[in-house]
Amino acid sequence: MARETFLVAQxxxxxxxxxxxxxxxxxxxxxxxxxxxxxxxxxxxSFLTPEELEERHVRRxxxxxxxxxxxxxxxxxHARAAGVEAEGELKYGSVIRRLAEAARAHEAALVFVGRSGxxxxxxxxxxxxxxxxxxxxxxxxxxxx
Amino acid sequence: MTDRRILPxxxxxxxxxxxxxxxxxxxxxxxxxxxxxxxxxxxxxxxDLPGTNFSWIALWLVIAALVFTVYFAAIQARGFAHSIRLVxxxxxxxxxxxEVSHFQALATALSGTVGLGNIAGVAVAVGIxxxxxxxxxxxxxxxxxxxxxxxxxxxxxxxxxxxxGTVSGGPMYYMTKGFGERGLPGGRVLAVIFCIFTILGxxxxxxMFQANQAHAQLSGVLGGYPGWITGVILAIITFAVIAGxxxxxxxxxEKVVPFMGIFYVLVSLAIxxxxxxxxxxxxxxxxxxxFTGLGVAGGFTGALIQGFRRAAFxxxxxxxxxxxxxxxxxxxxxxxxxxxxxxxxxxxxxxICTMTALVIVITGVLQLDxxxxxxxxxxxxxxxxxxxxxxxxxxxxxxxxxxxSWFPPLLAISVVLFAFSTxxxxxxxxxxxxxxLFGEGKVQELTFKSVFCLFIIVGSAASLGPxxxxxxxxxxxxxxxxxxxxxxxxxxxxxxxxxxxxxxxDGEIRKYA
Lengths: 145, 513
What we know:
The complex is a heterodimer.
Chain A: E1 5-9, H1 14-30, E2 33-41, H2 50-81, E3 86-93, H3 95-105, E4 110-114, H4 121-126, H5 129-136, E5 141-144
Parallel strand pairs in A: 1-2, 1-4, 2-3, 4-5
Chain B: H1 3-12, H2 20-45, H3 56-71, H4 75-78, H5 80-88, H6 102-113, H7 116-129, H8 132-157, E1 160-161, E2 167-168, H9 171-182, H10 187-222, H11 227-242, H12 247-274, H13 279-292, H14 299-315, H15 321-326, H16 334-341, H17 343-362, E3 377-378, E4 383-384, H18 392-403, H19 407-438, H20 442-461, H21 464-506
Antiparallel strand pairs in B: 1-2, 3-4
């Protein structure tokens, strides 16, 4: 049987590392591989100034390089050091939608996500990533506290 | 008083120490100098065709729009639905997310065009040309969609992409590169001329007209006070944004303006709904006026010229500015940006300008002569008589106040913000022209930005007539050069369009959503 894939949503806060450690632990036990993913929140319907339009391509490259270096690379290295096969993935767009799409694309067996850690009014009204995924995700979701 | 004496006078006259009389003197002087120095050029640009009272420049733009409409087989009609799908992102590759989207390019270009042309310009057109001007404005807007399609496709196709990933595009680039590709001479010369006009257009229509109308609104709400005060304040804020890197202000403006636009349309609709029984009458006035003038001096051609002039000034089709704004979009297919750009004149002119015009006509702020039933002509001012003789943005304000008395202060805020966002856009267009001519560099950038801010003060202090004429003259000069280039390069656009349409049909270009 092919190895299972676990998708790990990686964020910049401390929750991120906790989610990753838990996913590594489970992957080791189940002999699964990890896809560690970070989504840069982006709406194609936001408004930009002419200068921002002109510089967008450069900014995007910088943002991706930064996220790759600060988040993805260390997380992948951490997982591999723990003896788990892992690859990183970086996307732009709506966090929830992108994670749900990736779960489908990778035929993930499980998706690991942290609590949003926010009880702000905004998060309550518009929902948070785990809540959104709970509604949208087509594979079992592991919510790591 | 000569030019050389104005600036010291402005600087010497402090905000607190200036008496109203002294300030009034400065306003009048600036105005006089303006009329003296720019009058001849304005007359040249708006000269009538021999033996008619139809200005050659209006004909120039309309013929261009007609030619593009025919040449691309009414692309604005048959491509409209596809344009909407592109803006919705149906054809955008999700892996390109994070790049400039079609929607963003359209929104930014629109915030540079939607503004005073839609509020003040329409009032000027309807005030002089009568309700019939609206009809010709809409016609010009619909035809202008094809012009925008052409120029924005070329803008993306021939933009410069630099090694660091930034892009620069616009008519000057398609003039140089496109002409080179087709083996045509004179591309570089045309590009230089275009850039000079763009700089002057940025200072005129993109700056002084905006500042002028912003002041008219503010003084209407706050009570009359000298224009240079508004000018100095606006100039300081603008300088802080464009030269001082205060990007937060630009971002806030950029986000607020689209909502103001939507709000403006909603309020207009509310007024139309309240006066629903008069909508048919208003349309009647517009159609009848379009062909008879309804007693307006100049009659049919008066309405036609005013309509066309204001439409071009409002949606900037053929002027070339949009090609600069749209060229940053990330697309493999230049023609997709042409499709998206053709929505601009539609939103700007066909929707928003028509709203303003309908409200002005329906609320009855244009005075009718009770004896003849035609519009009462104020011969001295050269326009239809209005309550208190108001014109421009004040006329729009008066019309909206007939329905909602709370609207004028809100309109004043909108006008100032619209003016400000248009000024920011045009400072960018002007800057692009400057860097094309003189290369990138801190000195030339700062010089242009400083001059730009000084013109805000001049624009606020001058009265409407000379400023609006100069603004129009500069924008239309850009159009003269740009349209020549568009004629010569349109076969390239046709090639792009046919190839795109074929691949769309074959399914090679696929939908993602």
